[in-house]
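Handover notes (outgoing to incoming on-call)

Open items:
1. Sugar fermentation stimulation protein homolog: sequence verified, structure written out, both below. Nothing else pending on this one.
2. Nothing else urgent.
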Amino acid sequence: MTYKHTVTGTFLSRPNRFIAHVDVNGRTVICHVKNTGRCRELLIPGVTVILEYHPEAGVTGRKTEYDLIGVYKGNVLINMDSQAPNRAAWEWLEAMKGRAFPEPGANPGDTVRTPDNIRREVTHGDSRFDLAFTLDHMDGKSQVPAFMEVKGVTLEDHGMAMFPDAPTLRGIKHLHGLAQAVREGYDAYVLFVIQMKGIKGFKPNNITHPAFGEALREASSGGVHVLAYDCIITPDTMAVDQPVPVFLD
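Sugar fermentation stimulation protein homolog structure tokens:
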């Protein structure tokens, strides 16, 4: 995914979870923060941030000309746009068409499948999943319907990515919905899109929200596939890249 207009600034303050004050070339601008998470370890006064500029704001009625979409943590650029993971995951799935889809725990000789018929924001039961698709056997003989929920990850500690950075009852509901879909005969995936590089593994944040970690382990035991991928990040782009190890304990 690509941003049209980006600029660099210096983070000053975050009066509330929706807006931030950023210095851009000596001028303080008000930005919409595209992430309602706490992000306390990222948004520290003085850090360099990336903004998306909207030159059409005055015409379209936007309240701000800028969105805060990225931040440097040391030398690592982290995309913190909470809308970016869904878009990047959809692009990643589209690029996987005709290629072997990653199957956690697959063994040599297992049936190779590829995604097709990809749709976004699909309702099933009382859940609304980010992505729905079919997994077509590459021998052309059969296909299985599947759902995927996408979670963006910006929290990192000593090379370990963690989710969530704040309690999320909605996240638990999604996991229960995926587990129910498996019981109904669907394939189901939760994809943790780690919005940075340099990650050695992913694990649930059992300290901040132990109930989410327990729900993730239960979903995995019930047949929900847990995937975690890092991303290639530039000030203008974000793309899902490589799988990272998942540690559920």
